[in-house]
Amino acid sequence: MSVVIKGLLVFSLIGTGLIAGIFFSFSNFIMTAFSKISYSKGLAAMQAINRAVLNPLLFLFFIGTAISTFLLVVLYFFTTLVSSLELAGSILYFFGCFIVTGIRNVPLNNQIGSISSIEIGNEPVWRDYLKTWTFWNHIRTFASLSAFICLIISFGY
Fold first, then answer.
1. Which has more pLDDT, 2 or 57?
2. How many domains is the chain built from?
3. 97 and 147 in contact (C-beta within 8 Å)?
4. What string of H, E and C letters represents the secondary structure of 13-62?
5. Which one, of 154, 140, 156, lies nearest residue 76 by Cα?
6. At 1, is the pLDDT very low, low, confident or very high (cuts 50, 70, 90)?
7. Residues whose CB is less than 8 angstroms from the CB of residue 24 and which lie 6 or more positions away in sequence, other chains included
8. Closest Cα to residue 137, out of 28, 18, 16, 15?
9. DSSP annotation string for 111-133
10. Ramachandran class of 50: left when φ > 0, alpha when ψ lies in -120 to 50, beta otherwise
11. What is the domain extent for residue 147?
12. Dihedral angle of Cα 82, 85, 89, 91, to the nearest 10 degrees
């Protein structure tokens, strides 16, 4: 195995594991906690998270892992150095996590980013957001965790 491919695999493994943990936390308890408090507090907290999440360290692993998994998919078709398990893990992360985030979760975050938590009429918007965003986050959690599992198993072969 080349040093470049091994480096891509190690980075992808670390990235998929970190991102799976973040998404698991949201699916498992963070969004549930937000649903139990007043909508104004939950909405304000999620808006603060959506601002804070835009930082270089998260981008390094979230976008960097998308790039490394994309490169592994391309290399699968041009070399014999990327296994089918590595291909599966890379596809799961790139499409099930990165693309889903861009076409589902980010637009939902943008939608609630501009609403006011003090307006009573916005509570149904928040409740719908909780349900829809969490559904898509479950998909991202499953995809990134499955990608991590595929990549970790591939190291044994």
1. 57
2. 1
3. yes
4. HHHHHHHHHHHHHHHHHHHHHHHHCCHHHHHHHHHHHHHHCCCHHHHHHH
5. 154
6. low
7. 141, 145
8. 28
9. HHHTS-TT-GGGHHHHHHHHHHH
10. alpha
11. 3-154
12. 70
- Which residue's entry shows tokens 């195995």? 1
In contact, 83 and 154? CB cutoff 8 Å: yes
Does the pLDDT of residue 157 top 80, yes or no? Answer: no
123-154 vs 106-113: helix axis angle to the nearest 10? 150
DSSP letters, 89-103, are: HHHHHIIIIIIHIII
The pTM assigned to this predicted structure is 0.94
**Tens digits of per-residue pLDDT, 93-126?**
999 999 999 999 999 999 999 898 777 788 999 9
What are 110's two structure tokens?
A: 């943008």
